[in-house]
Design goal:
The chain has a single domain, classed as Sandwich (Immunoglobulin-like), CATH 2.60.40. Helix content is 14%, strand content 36%. The protein has 4 helices and 14 strands. The longest helix has 28 residues.
Length: 310
C-alpha cells in the first residue's frame, strides 16, 4: 500500500515537474511581449482572405484566364490604408492612387494592395522584363533605429506586355547594418543569410498578383509568416501566441532598374515619407503598426480604419 502511495506521489511529482519545465519556466525566463498600444497606431484586425491565397493561385493556372480579382472582397475586414505613391521615372512621375490591406490570424500577416494605373515597368527593354514590386518594412523592436535583423517583405511581380503576369512568391527581407558590396546599410533578401542552413523556400511564402492591362492596375496579395522557428536569430519577426507587438512600418512601391555599378537605382515611391535609397537608419518617424495575438476571437470581426493620404 505504501509502495503504491510512493509511486503515485512520484508520478504526480513527475507530471508537475514536466509541466513546470515546458509551460511555466519558459514564461518566467522569456516572458511574453505585450506592448502598450500608442495613440494613433494602426491596429491590424483578425481576418483571413476569402478565398484563400492557395485558391487564388489555382485561378492563376487557369488556361482560360483567372476570374476577376476583387481585393476588397478577398480582404474583407482588413485594415485599409489609402495613399498615393509618386514614383519618379525617366520623363516624368507616375502618380499611383493605392489602397493597402492588412489583416492577420495566429500565424500570418496578410498583405493586399491595389495600385491603380501603376503601368508596366518603364525600364523594360526589348529582351528583358523587370519587376514591379511592393515592400512592407518593419522596425521590429520599435526603437526608432534600424539594426540587424529588422524584418520586411517584398512581393516582386513580372508584368509582361501581353496578358502574362507572375507574382508567385514573396521574399522575406532583412536590414543589414552594412553590406560591403554596396558600401552602406540596406534591405536584402533573408534567404541570402539562411542558406545553406535553411531549406530552399524557407523565407518565401505564397503570393498572388494580377495586372489589368486596360487600366494598368496591379493587384497583389501575400501571406507573411509571423514566426519561423528555423530562422530564430535571423528573422526578427518571431511573434509567439499571446503576444502583442508594436512596430514602426513603412510601405514602398517600385520599379526594378538594373544599372551597372549603381545598385540603388530603382524607381521607388514611399509612404508616408521618403526612405529609399536608405541614406539613414532613422525610423523614429515611422507610423506604428499593432499585431495583437493575445485574444483570438471565435469569429474574425470586420474592421475598416480610415486611410491616410500622402
Amino acid at each position: 500500500m505504501r509502495l503504491k502511495g510512493i509511486l503515485l506521489f512520484s508520478l504526480l511529482f513527475l507530471i508537475l515537474a514536466v509541466s513546470l519545465f515546458y509551460f511555466v519556466l519558459p514564461n518566467l525566463l522569456f516572458p511574453l511581449t505585450i506592448d502598450k498600444i500608442p495613440v494613433g497606431a494602426y491596429i491590424v484586425p483578425w481576418m483571413e482572405p476569402n478565398p484563400s491565397i492557395a485558391v487564388l493561385r489555382t485561378y492563376q493556372q487557369n488556361p482560360y484566364g483567372p476570374p476577376p480579382f476583387n481585393i476588397d472582397s478577398v480582404m474583407a475586414g482588413a485594415l485599409k490604408l489609402n495613399m498615393t505613391f509618386n514614383i519618379s521615372v525617366t520623363g516624368g512621375t507616375r502618380i499611383i492612387p493605392s489602397t493597402v490591406y492588412l489583416g492577420h490570424d495566429m500565424d500570418y500577416l496578410y498583405v493586399g494592395g491595389e495600385f491603380t494605373g501603376m503601368g508596366l515597368n518603364p525600364n523594360n527593354g526589348p529582351n528583358v522584363t523587370l519587376f514591379n514590386y511592393f515592400n512592407i518594412l518593419f522596425d521590429v523592436n520599435d526603437n526608432g533605429k534600424l539594426t540587424f535583423p529588422e524584418a520586411g517583405s517584398q512581393l516582386p511581380v513580372l508584368v509582361y506586355n501581353d496578358t502574362w503576369t507572375t507574382g508567385g512568391l514573396y521574399h522575406d527581407l532583412l536590414w543589414d547594418n552594412y553590406v560591403s558590396q554596396f558600401g552602406r546599410a540596406c534591405w536584402v533578401f533573408a534567404e541570402d543569410y539562411c542558406f545553406p542552413n535553411a531549406p530552399p523556400g524557407m523565407t518565401m511564402a505564397n503570393g498572388f498578383a494580377e495586372y489589368d492591362h486596360p487600366t494598368g492596375t496591379l493587384t497583389i496579395i501575400f501571406a507573411r509568416c509571423l514566426r519561423l522557428s528555423a530562422m530564430s536569430g535571423i528573422d526578427a519577426l518571431q511573434m509567439r501566441p499571446g503576444e502583442r507587438w508594436v512596430m514602426g512600418f513603412v510601405l514602398e512601391l517600385g520599379f526594378g532598374r538594373y544599372v551597372s555599378g549603381t545598385p540603388f537605382s530603382d524607381n521607388v515611391g514611399d509612404w508616408p515619407g521618403p526612405v529609399y535609397p536608405y541614406l539613414s537608419n532613422d525610423s523614429s518617424w515611422w507610423p506604428k503598426l499593432v499585431i495583437d495575438l493575445t485574444n483570438q476571437p471565435a469569429t474574425f470581426p470586420s474592421e475598416t480604419a480610415p486611410g491616410t493620404g500622402s
